Amino acid sequence: MAESKEISSAYDLNAKWDAYLDLGVRRFVYSSATGALAALLLFRSPATRWASVAFGAGVGIGSAYSECSHKFDEGQQQPRI
C-alpha cells in the first residue's frame, strides 16, 4: 500500500505560489479600485483618471511583490558568517 506523505507548509512550493498569486491578484484589484474611486472624486480629465488607476495598480503589484519576496526568502535564509 502506498503511504501518504505529508509535506510541511514551509516546503510546499505549490501552496506558497497559490497563496502569493492570490495575494497579488487581491492587492491589484483592491488598489486599482481605490485608484478608480479616487480618480472619480478628484480628477476631471480622462488621462489623469487613467493615470490614477495605473498608479493604484502599480502600488498593489509592488506591495504584493515586496511581501511575497520577503515571505519566500524567510525559509531560505543563509547562515551568517
Secondary structure layout plus pairing:
Elements: H1 13-42, H2 46-74
Subcellular location: Mitochondrion inner membrane
GO cellular component, one term: MICOS complex
Pfam families: DUF543
The helix-and-strand class reads mainly alpha
How many strands appear in the DSSP assignment?
0
Q: Extract low-pLDDT stretches.
A: none
Number of helices: 2
Mean pLDDT: 84
Task: Report how far the terminal alpha carbons are from each other.
Answer: 46 Å
What would the principal axes of the Cα set say about the shape? elongated
- The percentage helix is over 70%
- What's the Cα radius of gyration? 19 Å
Summarize the helix and strand pattern as letters: HH
InterPro entries: Mic10
Keywords: Membrane, Mitochondrion, Mitochondrion inner membrane, Transmembrane, Transmembrane helix
Pfam families: DUF543 (PF04418)
Family: Belongs to the MICOS complex subunit Mic10 family.
Task: Report what the structure shows.
The N and C termini lie far apart (46 Å). The protein has 81 residues and is an all-alpha fold. The chain has a domain at 28-73. It has helices at residues 13-42, 46-74. It is built from two helices and no strands. It is found in: Mitochondrion inner membrane. InterPro entries: Mic10. Belongs to the MICOS complex subunit Mic10 family. Pfam families: DUF543. This is MICOS complex subunit MIC10.
